[in-house]
Design a protein that fits this description.
Blueprint (H helix, E strand, L loop, with lengths): L4 E4 L1 H17 L3 H16 L22 E5 L2 E8 L2 E9 L4 H6 L1
Parallel strand pairs: 1-4
Antiparallel strand pairs: 2-3, 3-4
Helix pairs in contact: 1-2
Amino acid sequence: MRQYNVQITDEALSDMEQLYNYIADVLLSPENAMGQYNRIADAILTLDTFPDRFRIMDSEPEHSKEIRRMLVDNYSVFFVIQDDKVVVTDVLYSASDIERRLKG
């Protein structure tokens, strides 16, 4: 079974930190914030095997860049497969304007 090295960009880490802070500080639920953070982190780690189980997005320019999307609860994890590594580029709230945020 092929193993991939999973890398998380600084932007994706910042996204995760922001979602943690929002849930913990704005929604006043630090336990839920930690649980959500851990579920996303655990899901990202599963990308070390069979990351191609998630299909390339249909929208452009994501399709041309071969960006894939994995759903974790109400969040979308975006990543690309590059040779023997998986690079996580963004972690966004699924109800947000994803196309605008990916382009930004």
